[in-house]
């Protein structure tokens, strides 16, 4: 029997929109009016490499008579009984309603595993509602936008944790790779090789796998499609994805190149580790920094690879200088692995693979809440937040909302008044205290006297 997921929630929170996205077809009727869905609808869904059955249900309403609404609710309750897991959806823009709390209790009593999805989370208002849904007590919310496809990676992680480990098909495309949720050695580590045109990406992939799998040459822009190759190294499975060179947006006017860039960006989005290739003779150009920043903003673990190292004259001290420049130009991933290599001479290839594996360690690290609370107390005692307008800002509580990348939520009295410099201090201290060097860190501030009030601001 396939794994079955039931989407439930009150009317008009976007259940059918998500259903259509997961089945890949516009099967369920979608409208702004609540109550369009009445019967439960089943379909075959796919998310990355996960295949499962999905049930779209009518919006839950508080009724007890024999009315149409009561029969619709009975259908939904039957779907909860039949499924393996429940995706409980709330509207992040409206915020929690009394009905959400009632139906959260219904789902909790079912005893089924629950994924809490905060739909319509795009923008600041949506994110505020997403963090408000912590108050339902159903675990960490998955912020997403069913209409725009945002947050699908996070939904994949939550769903993969509840399902059996998927079997990979050798013919899968990059959009079918997804991300690991369990560090299973039998599951390939997806690695996107990105960079400017002619940075040596295809040559690097060929050197790693030991065959001329990719077209290479002195001309820039040979690679157009994102090509994935499955490969074993050191007893671990990898899926290497060679991508088209990324030029500045203003220079892209060819339709084919636009499609190639979109393919490369999708490869970054679905990768676990992104290797940013830079020409060692001309490193840290503006476009190099943009590409590395893009990978960090997508929340991927980043490794900087300086290619064509064999062409660099006077190498003495050059590697150490690259390390210093990387931390200077890319403070958002300070301490990320830096590897000088040459695909022509095979220099540095083994070290690159070692650093790729090592980069995933802080990226998927989880820190216990009690440890974070002690760290917050010690950090603020050592260097208290500054007083703003004569009023001291109090830091009260902190927890880790998710991993991949590490995402933290801190609760304080006035998040809007906390200076950016103090936020950077907290992130840098957090990075040093828990050995999170080189990985993107997302840090959210929330105004509250308890863990379930309104959201303030965030830094990443």
Automatic annotation (TrEMBL):
GTP 1 binds at residues 9-16, 56-60, 119-122. Belongs to the TRAFAC class TrmE-Era-EngA-EngB-Septin-like GTPase superfamily. EngA (Der) GTPase family. Keywords: GTP-binding, Nucleotide-binding, Repeat, Ribosome biogenesis. Associates with the 50S ribosomal subunit. Residues 3-167, 189-364 form the EngA-type G domain. Gene3D superfamilies: 3.30.300.20, P-loop containing nucleotide triphosphate hydrolases (3.40.50.300). One of its GO terms (biological process) is ribosome biogenesis. The keyword Protein biosynthesis does not apply. SUPFAM superfamilies: P-loop containing nucleoside triphosphate hydrolases. GTPase that plays an essential role in the late steps of ribosome biogenesis. InterPro entries: G_ENGA (IPR031166), GTP-bd (IPR006073), GTPase_Der (IPR016484), KH_dom-like (IPR032859), KH_dom-like_a/b (IPR015946), P-loop_NTPase (IPR027417), Small_GTP-bd (IPR005225). The keyword DNA damage does not apply. This is GTPase Der. GO terms for molecular function: GTP binding. It comes from the Bacteria. GTP 2 binds at residues 195-202, 242-246. HAMAP family: GTPase_Der.
